[in-house]
Amino acid sequence: MTSSSSPSRKALSKIACNRLQKELAEWQVSPPSGFKYRVSDNLQRWVIEVTGAAGTLYAGETYQLQVDFPEHYPMEAPQVIFLNPAPMHPHIYSNGHICLDILYDSWSPAMTVSSVCISILSMLSSSPAKQRPQDNDRYVRNCRNGRSPKETRWWFHDDKV
Amino acid sequence: AALVELRRAAGEVAAQEFLSTPLLLANGESPVNGSDRRSGGEGGSRRVVALSPPPPVGIPWRSRATAMALHATSSRDSVRAAAEGEPEWAGDASRRPAAFYSAVFAQIEEVGWERLVSGKGDGGVSCLVFRILDDQGRNHLLEITLPMNYPSSPPCLVADVPYLPELQWSKGSRLKDVVCQFQEHLKILQDYWSIMDDIDKVLWVVDPTKPTFAMSHRRIALGDDCYLLLHVNVRKPRSLPEVRFLGTDGKLDRLITNWRKYCKKWSADKKFHENLSTVLDFALPPPPSVNIEDDEQVDCGICYAKHLPIDDELGTHSGGTTDYTCENPSCSRAFHSVCLRDWLRAITTTRQSFDVLFGNCPYCSDPVAVKITDR
Predict the structure, then answer these.
(1) Is A28 on the interface with B (CB under 8 A)?
(2) Which of A155, B34, B125, B156 is deepest in the core (most CB within 10 A)?
(3) Per the record, which residues fall in region Disordered (chain B) (predicted)?
């Protein structure tokens, strides 16, 4: 599946390794609500279970996020995708790619995995309907060769969902 | 009817009087609402004076003088009101009955006024904080919040402990029972805390630098950029802990293999750090010599470390501390200039003029500027 594509990753730099260890320790002490880190010794790839918030279209449903970190994190954004099956959402493609600006152009080292997760849960919670993006089929076809969502030139146009 | 009203007014005056006193005794300073006092009739004034709690033994002389002054003021106010011949009482009914306040004050007295640190909400008694000393001399603050239908419902507890005790509560229970149960809970936690203290003393703990009583995790340096992320079982602190290995793969493989192979050698009778050494088959490095300067250093807002890694590529900045601070007073975030420079180079909105990079603070977006080169 294209959703399990993995970019060619160099090993984490010392700075990235140190920061991620602190983020992980902080996560384990006070994880964000609705998220569960799938335990693994691979610091460079986190798999996180997301549970839809109560009172939303996704209440009680569980999805899995995959977070891959580049060599020079946090100077570069992590790659965040939903593993199959991806939730039906106007900004989430069926291959798991997420149209969310903080994962691409608006990334900042002030953000953390935790804050990104909260933003994604907020995006899910704001969904008006369970449907795919309009250009889902064309986009997924173009990504069939395992292309990373970070290579896409996204157009962010929706401030509500 | 007038007599009934007089009794109610006296009760409210008594409650009002008690509102002021514990704050004074606990904090040693004049309460804000001290002057906001109402006086009853002559009979009421006598009762007010009699019901005031006496200053406890050991209170500093200054506070005692203030307490005396408060009583004197109260007496004078009562006399003045009596002289005017017109008793005054609250126009609006309070949310809690007057009996609630007198009951709570009696219960605070049972616990000991000297233990009361603060009171706030609903006239100063909805949320009480007591200072509790445990067997090893550790100071604990126990916050007790009284619900509206107290004592039918149990109070809520907040404390800096890894887990709270299950409160045994009935309608006849009192604050003293809560404090006693918390003290018993602290006794149970003594073993856990002595183990955590031992870890902090013997091993090289890099995170957290200032652990709270509630924190059960430690990141322990093993050398060569390898770390052990440790979670002690707070209810069975002598049992095998949950561990995660972080760092470069080559060296970690042996440690992970040893952990899986030898974890059955873990013994509740041996010291925690001895168990770790045995199971890992590895001599754990001791903590580095205490560097007081490090406590004053701030973490970089980008790499989350006080010091940059020791690395030849970083040149003179190798191992360096934060050397740039955002000029926004509301932000004042600290950075390594190396990290800030790398970040500014990574984004497209950075502007360059001669050898200086201009951009925005990652946290507050105010302007920042950093030189390209070290010279």
Answers:
(1) yes
(2) B125
(3) 29-52
